[in-house]
């Protein structure tokens, strides 16, 4: 196992790098998009609410693989998107729907008296959101949001389907070169755990803290 | 437009729907198994049995933090090397069950934990032993609250069966790929149909889930 | 404090995981299967499990109308099965270039007949029958492309599509070392990727490429073959008796003309292909 690792170290680390890059881009992108769609669902405008709802329901109910493949083989005919970009876009859109739901649930669980109080003190809708509701909501949603990020890192393995150069792709390539179906996957499993385990444990710690 | 409609010929649709049936079959079996196993593991983890809970917790944490794709590869390529042989369908079911049981165990554990402490203490002081209290008091309340996360986990499971295309499970995504590889003109209609089929399936399940949730709460 | 605890827990689990996996691998490597188990099982249960392609026209392709697999490899598999054991029924399992060897070694399938080139590297892990088909690696490009041979792709920025686990992508490193290889899971995805502009060319064996070009008029095969790719049936090294039986079956088929008949059936009408050449 160790020799397998050292003889293919550059591939493993390349894969690790692409997995991290894809995850970070998707994390930032999906948080922004998710926040946008969460707000779209609660602004006092029926049309915006419906648009937000449709986006979330559609994206949430379709597999990530299908979304990614769509970008890789259909959208790429018009725009030039390689596997890494298609995969990262797919990951961003898919995760954004879950983040939107998480944030919306957080906003809803903030006591409605807070919002009404803010409004009756003369704050606009946006000010009430910005200064009263969102700061409290964000504290509530950090643990579930963290779990979404763990899912995001795990889901980045979808890049392997579209030659996205990530960890899973490298594991496949090394496995087929060496005819070893065990070692490469154990090694990438460790790489994934290095990313996901600390995040998971930290989120559980935060959850326990808020429970108390 | 003609091309577009031709893509939905009976021949193609029959091919796709056969795949959808595989998706449903694999999902339902995996849901049943992972619900049972996940519940047991979740309870074990909640109970803090010496050693056992720690070991179970360790395994659950490992599995929960790995990509499902990796677990599918493991069950299909690594398990046979220690003498366990499965065909593609069974492999997928086993991989899904392993992964989803771990996910559900965590939901069950935090669900039981969320039941107010007084409930357990009350039950114990009324003469019930721990298992009776668990079965009659804690679990029913916990499950009622857990319906939304459990249902969304099941929806995830259905979507995730598409990952088994990598080991050539002839489910609906795989079949759509087979069609559009042979008939490149039908690629957009195939993606549209895939989206529609998954949406109908998953949206229906979500709606049923929230209906049950509303009934239970009121 | 808490960060330390998280880091400690993570490290602890990783170490334990490494240990467990180390323990798990050791007996696997020591395992030696009994000789000729597969051959004896085929004779006993009258079923033979073949790993075949489902995404390559002419060789092994899923028919959408019937849901069944068909092609030269499929017909060969059926004919060989009958000659090994007249009572046996062939079971067909669809595989990809990436999954076929592990599946054979794991015992999920008894033999591979799936556009598999006999190479020295593969001979180290599996046994091959004598060659039953002579393919050669070629290039496929979009109709409007001006790429004429693999040499045109030996520059930085060129992207060559291939399939994971095929030796075609290894050959690219020899013939066009400057080009980037984009390896996809299967031929269905690779062909779609070519059409979507994910690469400048798709490379694999001419037999597979000609099959793709039969129904697809947006693409063309160019440049002729730049390697020779003799196909063989792959069998586990622990089953020399099965390899022998397969060789005997192929010889018989070549002698009594049934082999030529199959080759003619599949390749006679394919533009650009000469069935006599590939079966020499």
Automatic annotation (TrEMBL), chain A:
Presence of keyword Repressor: no
Compartment list: Cell membrane
MF-aspect GO terms: transmembrane transporter activity
Membrane-spanning intervals of the chain: 20-42, 54-75, 182-202
Alphabetically ordered keywords of this record: Amino-acid transport, Cell membrane, Membrane, Transmembrane, Transmembrane helix, Transport
InterPro entries assigned to the protein according to its UniProt record, in alphabetical order: AA_ABC_transptr_permease_3TM (IPR010065), ArtM/GltK/GlnP/TcyL/YhdX-like (IPR043429), MetI-like (IPR000515), MetI-like_sf (IPR035906)
Pfam families referenced in this protein's UniProt entry, alphabetically: BPD_transp_1 (PF00528)
Domain ABC transmembrane type-1 residue range list: 16-203
Topological type in the membrane: Multi-pass membrane protein
GO BP annotations, alphabetical order: amino acid transport
CDD domains: TM_PBP2 (cd06261)
GO cellular component, one term: ATP-binding cassette (ABC) transporter complex
Primary localisation category: membrane
PANTHER family: GLUTAMINE ABC TRANSPORTER PERMEASE PROTEIN GLNM-RELATED, MEMBRANE COMPONENT OF AMINO ACID ABC TRANSPORTER
Family designation: Belongs to the binding-protein-dependent transport system permease family.
Protein name: Amino acid abc superfamily atp binding cassette transporter, membrane protein
Provenance organism: Weissella viridescens
Taxonomy of the source species: Bacteria, Bacillati, Bacillota, Bacilli, Lactobacillales
From TrEMBL, chain B:
Main location (coarse class): membrane
Any single Gene Ontology cellular-component annotation: ATP-binding cassette (ABC) transporter complex
InterPro entries found in the cross-reference section: AA_ABC_transptr_permease_3TM, ArtM/GltK/GlnP/TcyL/YhdX-like, MetI-like, MetI-like_sf
Origin superkingdom: Bacteria
Protein name (database record): Amino acid ABC superfamily ATP binding cassette transporter, membrane protein
Pfam families from the UniProt entry: BPD_transp_1
Membrane topology of this protein: Multi-pass membrane protein
Family classification: Belongs to the binding-protein-dependent transport system permease family.
Key words of the record: Amino-acid transport, Cell membrane, Membrane, Transmembrane, Transmembrane helix, Transport
Cross-referenced CDD domains: TM_PBP2
Subcellular location(s) of the protein: Cell membrane
PANTHER family on file: INNER MEMBRANE AMINO-ACID ABC TRANSPORTER PERMEASE PROTEIN YHDY (PTHR30614:SF41), MEMBRANE COMPONENT OF AMINO ACID ABC TRANSPORTER (PTHR30614)
SUPFAM superfamilies associated with the record: MetI-like
Higher taxonomy: Bacteria, Bacillati, Bacillota, Bacilli, Lactobacillales
Cytoplasm in keyword set: no
Gene Ontology biological process terms in this record: amino acid transport
Any one GO molecular function term: transmembrane transporter activity
TM ranges: 20-44, 51-78, 84-105, 191-212
UniProtKB/TrEMBL annotation, chain C:
Record keyword Signal present: yes
GO-annotated molecular function: ligand-gated monoatomic ion channel activity
Keyword tags: Signal, Transport
Alphabetized InterPro entries for the sequence: Bact_solute-bind_prot3, Iontro_rcpt_C, Solute-binding_3/MltF_N
Domain Ionotropic glutamate receptor C-terminal: 47-269
GO terms under biological process: amino acid transport
Domain Solute-binding protein family 3/N-terminal span(s) in chain numbering: 47-270
Any one cellular-component term (Gene Ontology): outer membrane-bounded periplasmic space
Family classification: Belongs to the bacterial solute-binding protein 3 family.
Record's protein name: Amino acid ABC superfamily ATP binding cassette transporter, binding protein
Organism, as annotated: Weissella viridescens (Lactobacillus viridescens)
């Amino acid at each position: 196992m160790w020799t397998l690792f050292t003889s293919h170290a550059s591939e493993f680390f390349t894969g690790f790098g692409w997995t991290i890059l894809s995850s970070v881009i998707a994390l930032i992108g999906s948080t922004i998009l998710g926040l946008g769609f969460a707000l779209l669902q609660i602004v006092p405008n029926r049309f915006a609410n419906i648009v937000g709802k449709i986006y979330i329901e559609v994206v949430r109910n379709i597999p990530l693989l299908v979304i990614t493949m769509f970008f890789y083989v259909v959208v790429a005919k018009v725009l030039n998107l390689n596997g890494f970009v298609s995969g990262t876009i797919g990951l961003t859109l898919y995760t954004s729907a879950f983040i939107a739901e998480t944030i919306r649930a957080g906003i809803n669980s903030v006591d409605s008296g807070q919002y009404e109080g803010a409004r009756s003190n003369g704050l606009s809708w946006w000010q009430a959101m910005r200064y009263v509701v969102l700061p409290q909501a964000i504290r509530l949603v950090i643990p579930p949001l963290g779990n979404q990020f763990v899912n995001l890192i795990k889901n980045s393995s979808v890049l392997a389907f579209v030659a996205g150069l990530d960890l899973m792709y490298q594991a496949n390539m090394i496995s087929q070169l060496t005819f070893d179906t065990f070692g490469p996957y154990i090694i990438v499993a460790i790489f994934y755990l290095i990313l996901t385990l600390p995040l998971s444990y930290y989120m559980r710690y935060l959850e326990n803290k808020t429970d108390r | 437009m003609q091309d577009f409609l031709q893509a939905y010929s009976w021949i193609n649709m029959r091919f796709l729907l056969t795949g959808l049936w595989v998706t449903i079959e694999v999902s339902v079996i995996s849901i049943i198994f992972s619900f049972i196993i996940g519940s047991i593991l979740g309870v074990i983890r909640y109970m803090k049995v010496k050693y056992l809970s720690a070991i179970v917790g360790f395994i659950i944490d490992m599995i929960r933090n790995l990509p499902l794709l990796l677990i599918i590869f493991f069950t299909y390529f690594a398990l046979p090397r220690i003498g366990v042989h499965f065909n593609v369908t069974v492999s997928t079911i086993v991989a899904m069950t392993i992964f989803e049981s771990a996910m559900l165990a965590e939901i069950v554990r935090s669900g039981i934990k969320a039941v107010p402490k007084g409930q357990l203490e009350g039950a114990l002081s009324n003469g019930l032993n721990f298992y009776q209290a668990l079965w009659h008091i804690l679990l029913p309340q916990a499950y009622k609250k857990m319906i939304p996360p459990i249902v969304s986990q099941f929806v995830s499971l259905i979507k995730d069966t598409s990952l088994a295309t990598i080991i050539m499970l002839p489910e609906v995504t795989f079949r759509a790929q087979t069609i559009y590889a042979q008939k490149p003109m039908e690629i957009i209609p195939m993606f549209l149909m895939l989206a529609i089929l998954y949406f109908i399936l998953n949206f229906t399940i979500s709606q049923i889930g929230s209906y049950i949730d509303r009934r239970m709460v009121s | 404090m808490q960060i330390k605890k998280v880091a400690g827990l993570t490290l602890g689990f990783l170490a334990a995981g490494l240990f467990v996996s180390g323990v798990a691998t050791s007996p696997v490597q020591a395992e030696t299967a009994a000789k000729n188990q597969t051959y004896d099982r085929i004779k006993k249960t009258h079923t033979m499990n073949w790993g075949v392609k489902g995404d390559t026209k002419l060789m092994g392709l899923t028919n959408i109308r019937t849901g069944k697999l068909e092609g030269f490899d499929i017909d060969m598999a059926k004919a060989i099965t009958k000659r090994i054991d007249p009572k046996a029924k062939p079971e067909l399992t669809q595989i990809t270039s990436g999954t076929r060897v592990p599946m054979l070694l794991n015992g999920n399938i008894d033999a591979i007949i799936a556009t598999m080139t006999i190479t020295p590297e593969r001979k180290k892990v599996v046994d091959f029958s004598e060659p039953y088909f002579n393919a050669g690696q070629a290039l496929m490009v979009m109709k409007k492309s001006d790429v004429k041979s693999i040499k045109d792709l030996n520059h930085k920025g060129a992207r060559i599509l291939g399939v994971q686990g095929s030796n075609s992508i290894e050959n690219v490193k020899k013939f066009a070392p400057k080009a980037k290889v984009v390896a996809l899971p299967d031929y269905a995805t690779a062909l779609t990727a070519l059409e979507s502009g994910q690469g400048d060319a798709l490379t694999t064996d001419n037999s597979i490429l000609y099959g793709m070009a039969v129904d697809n008029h947006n693409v063309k095969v160019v440049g002729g073959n730049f390697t020779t790719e003799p196909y063989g049936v792959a069998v586990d090294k622990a089953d020399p008796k099965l390899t022998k039986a397969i060789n005997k079956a192929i010889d018989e088929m070549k002698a009594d003309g049934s082999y030529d008949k199959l080759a003619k059936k599949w390749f006679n009408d394919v533009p650009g292909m000469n069935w006599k050449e590939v079966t020499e």
